[in-house]
Design goal:
By secondary structure, this protein is α/β, with parallel strands linked by helices. The chain is 27% helix and 26% strand. It binds zinc ion (2 copies). One zinc ion (ZN) binds next to loops.
């Protein structure tokens, strides 16, 4: 069987349409016809060579939903359901080694140093090639953890669960106290920020304050947000004053960075109450250092700072559940749809921040 895919052959160059042939696959593999491939903000950085993990040539795309074409031998999903042709599936984009300290002792498999990721560090140079989602088909290797989806879930909506959604749930999963009754500030209203806002509200946060720069984006999550602060209309000092007013001059219990820009921390520290928790979830590529005042920002306030790196299978399941119970919001998130051959346009659209969520669709 032959399948077309968009390949990054050299950094900073447009993706090229290439064709790959799939013959035999190892026992336990699943060949999947792609139904939706999310275009992630990280793909823009990866295409420019800014992610130190990425080799070329590579088929980009780490967010996918597909329909099973063929299962080699037997394979069950994470709920122990046998996977069969025509099943609709999503999967954990990362493959971990299950042998290292993090996989076996610390039980933090998303931190496995040997983690391989579809579309990020698995080259298409060698067979079975189809290891990224900007492709008509994807080979899910035997180690991949797969989740069957119900057929009434729209592939282009649920695809957000595989990266932003799962990362959002990893962030919230790292909290040591329940969200019930908490005041939460979310910095950023991209797919990650909106996912976090919806999830924290549905997990019981009493007040969700979102900071963003685009009225259209702020509007998408409005039913889940108590206060929207537009940073183009309000100065940093005005935003801080609003947060203090809402929190009886204490600051928020939790601040979550979902902007992808380390400089957001400089504002975030001033929005957090003494003893609060800061989750840094959006920074995904190396950036310039920021001035960090250990006494004023960290010690004096006794805060906890939690870095959030990618996600694990449990977070994927949590994210799929959030999407399925709030599908109307997530449908609104998908503002741009492209065909596979338009993948370069899709990347440009995301880079220029025209799309809230861009998805490559195949049907
Ligand atoms: Zn991503
Ligand atoms: Zn490992």
């Amino acid at each position: 069987m032959k399948f077309k895919a968009m390949v990054l052959e050299a950094f900073k160059e447009p993706l090229q349409m290439r064709e790959f042939e799939i013959n035999e696959l190892p026992e336990g593999s699943v060949l999947v016809r792609t139904l939706a491939s999310g275009v992630c903000g990280s793909d823009v950085h990866i295409a420019k060579g800014e992610d130190p993990r990425t080799p070329v040539p590579i088929i980009l795309g780490h967010e996918g939903v597909g329909e099973v074409i063929e299962v080699v031998g037997e394979k069950k999903d994470i709920n122990n359901d046998p996977i069969r042709p025509k099943d609709r599936v999503i999967w954990n984009r990362g493959i971990v080694c299950r042998k290292c300290y993090w996989c076996t002792v610390a039980k933090q498999p998303h931190l496995c140093p040997n983690r391989k990721v579809y579309g990020i560090n698995m080259s298409c140079k060698d067979y079975p090639h189809l290891l990224g989602c900007y492709s008509e088909a994807i080979v899910l290797l035997p180690e991949v953890e797969v989740l069957k989806l119900s057929h009434d879930m729209d592939p282009s909506t649920v695809v957000i669960a595989s990266c932003s959604g799962a990362t959002a749930m990893n962030a919230l999963d790292s909290l040591t106290e329940p969200l019930v009754g908490k005041t939460v500030v979310v910095q950023g209203v991209g797919p990650l920020g909106i996912f976090i806002a919806v999830a924290v509200k549905s997990l019981g946060a009493s007040t969700v304050i979102v900071i963003g720069g685009s009225p259209e984006r702020l509007n998408v999550a409005k039913d889940f947000v108590d206060v929207s602060l537009n940073r183009r209309e309000l100065s940093e000092e005005e935003r801080r004053r609003r947060v203090l007013e809402i929190t009886h001059n204490r600051g928020a219990d939790i601040v979550i960075e979902a902007t992808g820009d380390s400089r957001a921390l400089l504002e975030g520290f001033n929005l957090l109450r003494r003893g609060g928790t800061y989750l840094v979830a959006g920074v995904a590529v190396p950036q310039q250092p920021i001035p960090f005042f250990v006494y004023e920002n960290l010690v004096l306030k006794g805060i906890t700072i939690q870095g959030v790196w990618v996600s694990d299978t449990r977070h994927l399941i949590q994210a799929v559940n959030v999407v399925s119970s709030h599908s109307k919001v997530f449908e609104k998130l998908v503002t741009h749809r492209f065909r596979l051959e338009q993948a370069n346009e899709a990347l440009k659209c995301v880079e220029e921040r025209k799309a809230l969520k861009a998805v490559i669709c195949f049907e």
